[in-house]
């Protein structure tokens, strides 16, 4: 009986730790249109947003890890983003990115994480039959 109770307590403790760990690290993914609909109620909440880096919007501070840019999506909405950290090698204008962070009261997305999507040039090409 003691073994069963002890095992039950261990299993419940592990389940609790898994559930609380997942809920604390998970963030909701929003489109720019959904972000705009939520308005100021979303300020300070951890979220992820996917968009395309707007051409001509990348501004880097020389000698620092700070970069400011804008992203847009199919809804034609734009979002200014401020990121401080190491920028991925594939980061450039016109590429899809995912930013994770929060929207500040001034409307600028304060990104803690910046991820780039692989461009389509890395996708495999279809083989063409060779003629003999």
Describe this structure in words.
It contains two helices and seven strands. The protein is an alpha+beta fold. It has a domain at 27-118: Nucleic acid-binding proteins (OB fold (Dihydrolipoamide Acetyltransferase, E2P), Beta Barrel). It has a five-stranded mixed β-barrel with strand order 2-4-5-7-6. Strand 1, helix 2 and strand 2 form a beta-alpha-beta unit. It is elongated, with a radius of gyration of 21 Å. It starts with a helix and ends in a 16-residue tail after the last strand.
The major β-sheet equals: 5 strands, mixed, barrel
State the distance separating the first and last CA atoms.
Answer: 77 Å
Strand elements, count:
7
- The CATH topology of the domain at 27-118: OB fold (Dihydrolipoamide Acetyltransferase, E2P)
Shape: elongated
Taking all Cα atoms into account, the compactness measure Rg is 21 Å
Helix content: 10-25%
Query: What is the CATH first-level class name of the domain at 27-118?
Result: Mainly Beta
Strand order in space, largest sheet: 2-4-5-7-6
Q: Overall mean pLDDT score? A: 83
| Percent of sequence in beta strands | 25-35%
Structure class: alpha+beta
Describe the structure using short key phrases.
OB fold (Dihydrolipoamide Acetyltransferase, E2P), alpha+beta, 132 residues, 7 strands, 2 helices
Question: Care to give the gist of this entry?
Answer:
With 132 residues, the chain is an alpha+beta fold. The chain is built from 2 helices and 7 strands.
């Amino acid at each position: 009986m003691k073994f069963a109770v002890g095992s039950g307590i261990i299993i419940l403790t592990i389940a609790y730790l898994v559930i609380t760990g997942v809920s604390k690290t998970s963030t909701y993914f929003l489109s720019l249109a959904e972000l705009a609909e939520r308005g100021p109620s979303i300020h300070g909440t951890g979220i992820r947003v996917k968009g395309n880096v707007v051409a001509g919007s990348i501004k880097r501070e020389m000698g620092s890890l700070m970069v400011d840019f804008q992203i847009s999506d199919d809804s034609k909405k734009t979002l200014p983003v401020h990121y401080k950290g190491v920028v991925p090698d594939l980061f450039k204008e016109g590429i899809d990115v995912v930013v994770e962070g929060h929207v500040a009261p001034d409307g600028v997305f304060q990104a803690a994480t910046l991820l780039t999507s692989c461009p389509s040039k890395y996708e495999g090409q279809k083989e063409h039959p060779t003629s003999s």
